[in-house]
Amino acid sequence: MRRALRLCESGFPRLVVLFAAVYAAIRLSAFRGLADLRASSFEPVGILWFLGSPLPDAVWFGVLGLLFVSGLVVLTGRAARPAMVVFTPCVLVVTTYRSSWGQLLWFENLLVIHLIVLTVAAVTGPIDAIRPPPWAMQCCAVATVVLYVLAGLAKLRYGGLGWISGDVLANHIGYSSARLSVFGEQPPLLASFAVNHPGALTIASFATVTSELGAPLALLGRRLAIVWSSVMWATHVGIALTMAVVFPYPLVGLAFVPVVAVAGCMSLRRTGTK
Amino acid sequence: MIHASTRAWKPKRKRLMLAAFVLVLLSPALRNVDSFPLSTQPLYANDRAATARLATVIGRDASGAPLRLSMRIAAATDDPLIAQSSVARSIRDGRATELCRHVAKRIPLRSPMVSIEVVREQVDVMAMARGAERFGTLKVVARCDVR
């Protein structure tokens, strides 16, 4: 377990780059399809806020191409550092551009933040080595935890106590089904089961909000980190099965690697002082 | 002496950098502004009613029966979030007729559809989740012929 964790930690930047490249390849048709959307739908956000109109097709496809080429170079291990400096901005531009059509998407936030941290670490670290220093893993762990805390706070801020009762969650599951159904898709696999068991939804709602708000506890020790990561992973599995919304980065577990690694270091240090 | 002060300063600087990083991550919530990649993370946060009025595009066959269109045909995407918001925005911006004509051009040649409608559909979301409701109450915003 520890060896696997250490391997995962030392190879974390490459695993994240591999994930981002594979994800971009799987979503390529969706990314390419942005070129077909009407210019009037364009509402730039984030680093693209200054754009008055959509990117010219040549630029858009150029950025997509550069993302794959630089990603491959990082993965080969040669000139990994300069390649990462190209790869991360490409991922940032591609994912920001995808959220610039009137609907912010929240599937890639953490992935992009982790990539930015790891790239800063690679740039400031030894030449051509992208093994993350401890501070980079700490920043990634903190980013994971803070984003989940924000998600918990948002549920209480916008959904109120109704969120904990399970009513809001039931309606969200129903809404996700309806949104699919009006476009001829089947409702999610467990949507019907979930809305027919309101008691289970109350427990799920309470568990979701408390584990999101309690995310910082995961940094206190490895066992807590593993338990918390498992609960959040199970939450994402539940979301996928009841709402057909897939958050790939947490689902493959990469979002939680820094949390377990950092908390693991803390508990190792404690053992060492005994 | 210098070495000792550097050792004392470095962890402090790291803590300050980490605190600044946390502040940056929290900034969207503090300003209540959602963006990308810094976000308020409002995933499924807002309250939702048990009924919803969804913007969509449907087809009609020669008998006038309604038929569903895929996201790919209705909104040139495979993401329901984007499809929904794209159709809703077209209606809101007064471009429903333009959307209707765009969609009509995407209908396959052998399709039984003879007309396209951009609609607002009132649905019982729970019934939809149980698979009990196929079509809600339709309010046509724009209509156009296929071919």
Record keyword descriptors for this entry.
heterodimer, A: 274 residues, mainly alpha, 14 helices, B: alpha+beta, 4-stranded antiparallel sheet, 5 helices, 44% helix, disordered N terminus
Characterization of the model:
The complex is a heterodimer of chains A (274) and B (147). Chain A has 14 helices and no strands. By secondary structure, chain A is an all-alpha fold. In chain A, α1 packs across α14, α5 (80-98) packs antiparallel against α6 and α11 crosses α12. Chain A is globular. In chain A, 46% of the residues are buried. Mean pLDDT of chain A is 89; it is low at 266-274. In chain B, strands 2-1-3-4 form a 4-stranded antiparallel beta sheet. Chain B is of the alpha+beta class. The longest helix of chain B is centred in the first third of the chain and has 30 residues, at 2-31. Classes of the chains: A mainly alpha (274), B alpha+beta (147). Chains A and B meet through α3, α5, α6, α7 and α9 of A and α1, β1, α3 and α5 of B.
* Beta-strand segment tally of chain B: 4
Greatest interface and its participating residue counts: A-B, 71 and 61 residues
pLDDT below 50 for ≥5 consecutive residues: which ranges of chain B? 1-8
The total of beta strands of chain A comes to 0
Number of helices of chain A: 14
- How far apart are the first and last residues' alpha carbons of chain B, in Å? 84 Å
Order of helices and strands of chain A: HHHHHHHHHHHHHH
Work out the helicity level of chain A.
over 70%
Overall pLDDT level of chain B: 88
Oligomeric state as shown:
heterodimer
Largest sheet of chain B: 4 strands, antiparallel
Residue share in helix of chain B: 40-55%
Strand line-up of the largest beta sheet of chain B: 2-1-3-4
- First-residue to last-residue Cα separation of chain A: 22 Å
- The shape of chain A, in one word, is globular
The helix/strand series of chain B, from N terminus to C terminus, equals HEEHHHEHE
Question: Structural class, from secondary structure content of chain A?
Answer: mainly alpha
Indicate the overall shape of chain B: elongated
Strand-residue fraction of chain B?
15-25%
Strand content of chain A: under 5%
Radius of gyration of chain A: 20 Å
